[in-house]
């Protein structure tokens, strides 16, 4: 579910769909949907039914959110 786009963007990887977010964070689809609409909003691009997530940015947003919370 993690794929690179083109040879020039080797380091820009994306995670596809809620299933990709589930695998990235080890959570359920329901929790992935909540994360997508909440703290990961800046890392998620949605075009219709297609969901693309930048995993590096998503991890940073997730860690920043929970480090501020504790």
Task: Give an overview of the whole structure.
The relative contact order is 0.18. It contains 3 helices and 4 strands, in the order ββααββα. Strands 1-2-4-3 form a 4-stranded antiparallel sheet. It has helices at residues 17-25, 29-37, 55-69; strands at residues 2-5, 9-16, 44-47, 50-53. The N and C termini lie far apart (31 Å). The chain is globular and about 35 Å long. By secondary structure, the chain is α+β, with helices and mostly antiparallel strands.
The biggest beta sheet reads:
4 strands, antiparallel
What oligomeric state do the depicted chains represent? single chain
**Fraction in helix:** 40-55%
Give the termini distance in whole angstroms.
Answer: 31 Å
Order of helices and strands, N to C?
A: EEHHEEH
Please tally the β strands and state the result.
4
Structural class: alpha+beta
């Amino acid at each position: 579910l993690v794929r690179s786009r083109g040879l020039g963007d080797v380091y820009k990887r994306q995670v596809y769909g809620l299933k990709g977010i589930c695998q990235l964070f080890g959570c359920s689809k329901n929790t992935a949907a909540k994360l997508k609409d909440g703290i990961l909003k800046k890392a998620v691009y949605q075009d219709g039914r297609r969901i693309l997530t930048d995993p590096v940015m998503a991890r940073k947003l997730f860690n920043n959110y929970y480090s501020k919370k504790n």
